Amino acid sequence: MIGLDPVELLDILGNENRRRILQLLSFRPFYFNEIAKRLDVGPKAVIDHLEMLERAGIIECYHDQTRRKYFRIARKTILEVAVSPHSYGVRAYRSEDTSTTMPLEAPDLQALQIELLSLEERRQALRKLMDEIESKDMEIKRLAASGVRNYAANQMEAEILLALLSGSIGSETLAERLEIPKIIVEESLMRLEQRGIVHREGEQWSI
Question: What's residue 96's pLDDT?
Fold first, then answer.
């Protein structure tokens, strides 16, 4: 698919058998009968799962020299879900596969193990950094939630200002995000604009 819908990806990955298929394909490509046998799932169900994963662009198929159809993971897809007392966000993006072709000679398993352990150390360091960023992000949003009360005349305006802290946004998108009728959001935005708290550039509103 052209654009990644994080909510759709969450729905797709919410199914245990689809997760099992992806786990299987993370080792190597498999053809249909192998997948059905490994997972002990009915053929019709496996076909449905594979079609859904393929439509989402998560997996792809190809044929070998005998015209047997194989399935493999299409590319690296990263799905991030962040939940905190002051925010909720889901983001999905793709990362280009930078892997290189394995050499024809037998690999040095010990060297590969050392490299994997090194990567795990870097992964742990990155997780620590992400934790620090999330902690700082939560602190700032907590301060913002308290600070907007000095500018907002009511709860509606406070929610709008908190949403605008993430960047410029159109009134229609803002209304959808807050699940509030567009006309009510626009009335609040205009009141905030009159008080000099927000401003508009074209269709975009910002603090």
Answer: 59
Helix (H, G, I), strand (E, B) or coil at 160: helix
Q: Tell me which amino acid residue 143 is.
A: L
Average pLDDT on 97-114 reads: 67
Residue type, 113: Q
State the burial class of residue 188 (Cβ atoms within 10 Å of its Cβ: 0-12, 13-18, 19+).
buried
List, in sequence order, every beta strand (DSSP E) within 14-58.
30-31
Alpha carbon 96 to chain centroid, angstroms: 15
Q: What are the tens digits of pLDDT across the range 138-171?
A: 888 888 888 888 899 998 999 999 889 888 999 9
Contact between 13 and 23 under an 8 Å Cβ cutoff? The reply is: no
Query: For the chain, which domains are there?
Result: 6-96 (1.10.10.10), 147-206 (1.10.10.10)
How many residues belong to the chain?
Answer: 207
Residue ranges with strand state E in the chain:
30-31, 59-63, 69-73, 76-84, 87-95, 169-170, 199-201, 204-206
| Element housing 68 (H / E) | none
Query: Which value, in Å, is the radius of gyration of the alpha carbons in the chain?
Result: 24
Residues 18-43: what's their mean pLDDT? Answer: 91
Task: Determine the pLDDT at residue 88.
Answer: 72
Burial of 61 (0-12, 13-18, 19+ CB in 10 A): middle
